[in-house]
Amino acid sequence: AQSVTQLGSHVSVSEGALVLLRCNYSSSVPPYLFWYVQYPNQGLQLLLKYTTGATLVKGINGFEAEFKKSETSFHLTKPSAHMSDAAEYFCAVSDTGGFKTIFGAGTRLFVKA
Amino acid sequence: NAGVTQTPKFQVLKTGQSMTLQCAQDMNHNSMYWYRQDPGMGLRLIYYSASEGTTDKGEVPNGYNVSRLNKREFSLRLESAAPSQTSVYFCATAMYRDISTDTQYFGPGTRLTVL
């Protein structure tokens, strides 16, 4: 069975600081991995996804994530946080050909001025 | 294009009442999904419809029924609401059958409270 663990339900950074949101997954087959962002009172939006190929994936708004098979991780980073990055972020995993995407519990990012 | 729309935005029910949540998409997508979001638990799949005319159970289907009315519309019904169904409900759509390589598009959500 697949699962996703997001380390830290809340992360707080200063504006301009590095953003690092951690995600570890469990999957018996090669995984497809996603990061979604949810702004207050809105639905989820896809930030980036890893399917196959290059392990460093670039997404929207300056975010990127690196798939590390040996560490079963897919951490999300951004070099410099903006106030507009304050939101909840969800890591998700799906198996090959599957309909069922498993979401992590989410990490709420706070950005301090 | 409206994308994915959900109605209503908010709803308060009493235990035992029934209601239907509506989802419609104008993206010509094949697959549609219903999730619930609870604090600290992320999103959990209730039901999904791979294509018009088909529906399947997800992770937490008990207490819910769905109808894929046509390609555009996918409704979620609570026959006898319970307080445990208090949640935020999201509808999502995707173009292709294989969502592992496709992007899901989410509606704005319905906030449901069951008293």
Tell me about this structure.
The complex is a heterodimer of chains A (113) and B (115). Chain A is mainly beta and 113 residues long. Chain A has no helices and 11 strands. In chain A, strands 2, 4, 5, 9, 10 and 11 form a 6-stranded mixed β-sheet that branches. In chain A, strands 1-3-8-7-6 form a 5-stranded antiparallel β-sheet, with no helix packed on it. The relative contact order of chain A is 0.34. Chain B is mainly beta and 115 residues long. In chain B, a hairpin with a 6-residue loop joins strand 5 and strand 6. Chain B is globular and about 40 Å long. At the A-B interface, strand 5 of A face strand 5 of B.
Strand and helix map with partners:
The complex is a heterodimer of chains A (113) and B (115).
Chain A: E1 3-7, E2 10-14, E3 19-26, E4 32-38, E5 44-50, E6 56-58, E7 64-68, E8 73-78, E9 87-94, E10 102-103, E11 107-112
Chain B: E1 4-7, E2 10-13, E3 19-25, E4 31-38, E5 42-49, E6 56-57, E7 64-68, E8 74-78, E9 87-94, E10 105-106, E11 110-114
Distinctive features:
heterodimer; A: 113 residues; 5-stranded antiparallel β-sheet; 55% strand; B: 115 residues; mainly beta; 7-stranded mixed β-sheet; 4-stranded antiparallel β-sheet; 0% helix; 50% strand
Shape of chain B: globular
The average pLDDT score of chain B comes to 92
The assembly state of the depicted protein chains is heterodimer
Q: Rg of chain B from C-alpha positions?
A: 13 Å
Number of strands of chain B: 11
Element-level helix/strand string of chain B: EEEEEEEEEEE
Strand content of chain A: over 45%
Q: Give the SSE order of chain A as H and E letters.
A: EEEEEEEEEEE
Q: State the distance separating the first and last CA atoms of chain B.
A: 36 Å
Mean of residue pLDDT values of chain A: 91
